[in-house]
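Lecture notes, continued. The same structure-token format from the folding unit now serves as the input rather than the output. Read the line below as a description of shape only.
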């Protein structure tokens, strides 16, 4: 695999930046693909050769024909997918800390004409089958209550954990038995798949997933995501929904060119493997200092408790990361008064020396 983090420029602007994989630049191959796509003319609104090729590529990647709709943002992918799957009086069951529930400014409810998000608890930001079963046995439907219509899972989760194939299958079986469809927010799907070493098909439709928000922006694209409906018959009206929402890009070839370069020769998984390897390096180094991650590192995110002096020292040296609030810590986890839970995210562009410097500073005395 190419060492994407050694590309120079543009990956030296902000050392020790662990704020988000969204903070990384665009992968060189994707930027080059955009430049090539900028030559000459192409039909607008998705009627171009780039779009036709990436649609075929998705069919190959997922081992079946699927309806694919490119959009520019993950929020658009999630909101339009859920609006398409749920009636306005429906409920989308998700983890209480899922991105769709906490960080999309009500977009699913807005585009879904008032659909309701219902948050469920779960350690490590994962929904357990027993939790879902209890929720589905609640009071639903009739003229007074919303009806459960969709189960939405995040892959990877907001805790950086991943649903195993058998976990998805167990949840999907429960959901389908009650008439719900299953959606996956796959903003970091590549990181989860690379970690589990399973195929895209095994972790999605073969496990019972009906719709996927396929993320590329966090993985190295400029702005490219996709709504994937694994039953093309369910796609009726989705094209109009995307257009009506203002997310059918006129110069659509530039979305498609990004996605094509991202998926070409499994580049999306190679980029994710580098990010995961840097997360492992970071987690192992911090654990050796007594700063073990609070959750298993199953994608490219590391969550640790930093003491106030360590936090101040790292920030003074230029490290960038976010404090994190959660109700999903492992049972028995204590939060000392002088400690802060922080999230550290690695990307395809993270360099080993950034990781090593962070670890060295975290372990410095005084």
């Amino acid at each position: 695999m190419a060492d994407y983090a050694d590309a120079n420029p543009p990956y030296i602007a902000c050392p020790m930046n662990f704020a988000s994989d969204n903070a990384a630049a665009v992968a060189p191959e994707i930027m080059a693909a955009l430049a090539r796509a900028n030559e000459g003319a192409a039909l607008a609104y998705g009627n171009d050769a780039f779009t036709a090729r990436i649609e075929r590529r998705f069919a190959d990647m997922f081992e079946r024909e699927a309806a694919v709709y490119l959009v520019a943002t993950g929020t658009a992918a999630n909101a339009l997918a859920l609006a398409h799957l749920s009636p306005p009086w429906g409920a989308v069951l998700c983890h209480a800390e899922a991105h769709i529930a906490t960080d999309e400014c009500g977009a699913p409810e807005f585009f879904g004409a008032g659909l309701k998000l219902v948050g469920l608890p779960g350690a490590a930001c994962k929904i357990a089958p027993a939790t879902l079963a209890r929720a589905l046995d609640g009071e639903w439907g009739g003229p007074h209550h919303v009806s459960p219509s969709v189960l939405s899972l995040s892959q990877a989760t907001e805790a950086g954990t991943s649903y195993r194939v058998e976990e998805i299958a167990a949840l999907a079986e429960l959901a389908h038995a009650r008439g719900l469809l299953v959606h996956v927010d796959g903003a970091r799907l590549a990181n989860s798949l690379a970690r589990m070493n399973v195929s895209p098909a095994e972790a999605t439709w073969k496990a019972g997933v009906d719709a996927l928000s396929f993320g590329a922006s966090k993985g190295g694209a400029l702005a490219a995501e996709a709504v994937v409906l694994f039953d093309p018959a369910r796609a009726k009206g989705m094209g109009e929904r995307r257009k009506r929402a203002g997310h059918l890009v006129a110069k659509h070839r530039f979305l498609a060119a990004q996605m094509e370069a991202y998926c070409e020769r499994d580049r999306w998984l190679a980029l994710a493997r580098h990010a995961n390897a840097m997360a492992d390096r970071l987690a192992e180094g911090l654990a050796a200092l007594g700063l073990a991650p609070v959750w298993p590192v199953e994608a490219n995110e590391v969550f640790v408790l930093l003491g106030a002096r360590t936090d101040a020292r790292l920030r003074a040296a230029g490290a960038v990361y976010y404090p994190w609030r959660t109700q999903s810590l492992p049972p028995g986890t204590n939060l000392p008064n002088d400690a802060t839970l922080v999230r550290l995210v690695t990307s395809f562009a993270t360099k080993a020396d950034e990781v090593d410097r962070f670890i060295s500073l975290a372990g410095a005395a005084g």
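Point for the exam: The chain has two domains: 4-25+267-363, 28-266.
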